[in-house]
Amino acid sequence: MQSVEAILKQIQNLYKTYGYTKFKMNKFEEYDTYVKNKDFLVSDKVITFTDTNGKLLAMKPDVTISIIKNTDCEKDAVRKLYYSENVYRVTKGSHSFKEILQCGLECIGDVDSYSICEVLCLAAKSLLYISFDAVLDISHMGLVSALLKYSKINEQSISKVLNAISEKNIPELKTICDEQGVEESSKELILKLVLCNGAINDVKEKLQDFCVDELTTTAVNELKEICENLCDFPFAKIVHVDFSVVNDMNYYDGIVFKGYVEGVPGGVLSGGQYDRLVEKMGKKAKALGFALYLDMLERLFTESKEYDADILICYEDGVLPQAVFEKVEMCIQSGKTVLVAKDTQDKIKCKDMIVLKKEEK
Fold this sequence. Notes:
The chain has helices spanning 4-17, 31-35, 64-70, 113-130, 141-150, 158-166, 170-180, 184-195, 200-203, 214-230, 275-280, 295-303, 321-333, and strands at 21-22, 28-30, 48-50, 56-59, 78-90, 97-109, 134-140, 197-199, 239-242, 255-261, 269-273, 286-293, 309-315, 338-341, 350-356. With 361 residues, it is α/β, with parallel strands linked by helices.
């Protein structure tokens, strides 16, 4: 199985072939940049320090916000950027900060149907580089938002509703709807949306059931168009519609998605259309992107590592360095990985071992 580093290299080359330019950024930004959009962050805990000029700076906990801040967004053009950066934040299940390698891409500007399909295509291909046993779940925050608005769910309960939707917690949703006095027909629509999931070909025709007003109809039409476009793509079999994929409605207003691979609990890829974040940061453009959390893959590949190298080369006292080097080069040229040690060591795991004796040249 490949290493995380090898997969990262393949994924970066993939993004390059689609015309995405690498974006390089500083390790830190002004803290104010993040505090204004803390709800957008995976974790609201940020490492801060005071610069020599008295400004409060933060070790970057997120890449997307930095890219939007430092990129000229043109409404009639598209900026396509990819990145491979370390971010600094508290991870789930941890109570300490970690330096996490993250890669992804952003498409900013005149984002249209093709742009959305291209980003979803690259997300799916990224997952398939990791494992052929992968799933990309897509949803639409515009439809979720419009349906909650139609059902007259008050703003104070939105976060509770979204959390229940993400967990597919039907009893909790029923309780919230009953407490809010939601009409029975609207409640049934919300519950039906949560349970509406499956392959894009199977789900796309069911979406018409959620067209109850102008807002829901617009969102349904957008999602149906995306599904119909994706049906002919070679990776379509790994794409599913699942409305439990939700994000903060203050930032996301269109397509949202999560990627999963066998052997890793939780999503390894997350993305969506975050036009409202761009607008909130004072820029007029649409934006779509995703991040691949490489730290979640470390355990997958570490656990599957059987050998330190293909061949262990050991040499006795008196063997000339040139002789060792020649043997190493010969093995490498045959396509093998090589580890050289003075003596055999039980802790080193290799498929084969070669021992060079003093008389060997």
